[in-house]
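HUMAN: Ready with one sample?

ASSISTANT:
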Amino acid sequence: MLMVYVESAHHEVIEVELQDINGLSVHESSVVANSEIEINAALAPGVYILRASSQTVNKWIRVLKIE
């Protein structure tokens, strides 16, 4: 399980996608800014890329799952 808090100065919808290191999407969702989401995908240990995008910004964050 992965908990993500999506913060933004603007009240907007944020598209969240989690990809494995090969670019395969393992989770996609839309959330309202300044809220928390829980990703319940059965994730194997490894490196993942979390992408959060809206009309005003795109962010990529590397996530490491160790257990």
About this structure: Strands lie at 2-6, 13-20, 25-32, 35-39, 46-53, 58-65. The chain has a mean pLDDT of 91. DSSP finds no helices and six strands in the chain. The two ends are 10 Å apart (CA to CA).
